[in-house]
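Page 42, continued from yesterday. The earlier attempt failed because a stray header line got pasted into the input along with the sequence. Redoing it now with the clean sequence only.
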Amino acid sequence: MLLARFASRRDRKKAWVWQLRPGKEPKEVSVRRVGVATYFYGKPETGVEEQFCEQETRTASILDAIEAGANPATYDVDLRHWVHTLAYRTRHLRDAFSETVDELLNEMASSADSDSAQRAGWAYVEANLDRILLDVLSGLPQNQRDSILAALKRTPDGWQSLRTYAMQCASQVDLGKTTKEFLLKARQFVELDRATQEGQVGGLSRILNAGPQETPIVLDSWHAIRAHSSHFILGDCCVSCIDQCSNAYPLPAAPKDFKELYLPVSKHCMAVGIRGASQPSLSIPQINLSAAKVSRDMLFAASLDPSVLDLSKVIATSSSYLRGDPPCRIVQDLWEEMRRNPGNRRDNGRA
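This time it went through. Structure tokens are written below.
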């Protein structure tokens, strides 16, 4: 539905669009052959595809009206819901999330024998030792478990003695090496592709079931930028945002105080959601540049003028879901948080 609005040409109900990828020659493709995957949103019983169909039918008429001159603010609730859905339904999000988690898991494994990781590990063991011991006991045959628990009750400070003995045994273990080996082995069994698909489909189902009124995106105003002598492009993450310094982000990775949100309507129209400022701050070339930077691996355009061709060189130069922090920094912060807060307790006392 959205790709057809950026068509390079049409023949009755058929539409084509130019697809651009870094280092490859542009090619004109049928919109029906772009982004096709079997059960991408799960099998029919999830209901997500059916809900998308209903939403897209409603949204298509809204986008038609905006392109024809209507004020996008008239459709504020539906547009914010459409934005929320678009931001989380793409392959761009799924692949980026999977790669981010994979990168962080690998960094955790490689740094598991560092001083900071070992301090975090010992703090965790000490804070959670009671639960760890109970988990070990629960795994024993019932007669052995009952016997040990009875002996502990008969002995003064029996549980504390068991804790002390357990910590003495643990101190003889190379915790860093053990943690590294565990993470490396566990990593082999983590099915990230399946997990990210299930997470994405579950999240989309919640977004769609909640309805437009529950959309968390807050904007102060809507504007439309219309252009007839030039063209907007469509990035593979669809929606892009900019911060106060005009840095571009995909919506899920944007800072909470992002300044503007760019929602593609067609090759001749862009809807802009704004916070604070009265007017959009980017020109059409700047909007296209932002869309290219936050895209993962491809762009779509109605024409191949030189300015569009140049955009293929900047694809994925600003689309990290780590928000600029390298994995090593994030993992070090994680070890430090575990050391300071080994019981994972927040200020409100809830786990």
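Notes: Residues 3-31+46-98+194-314 form one domain.
Reminder to self: strip header lines before submitting.
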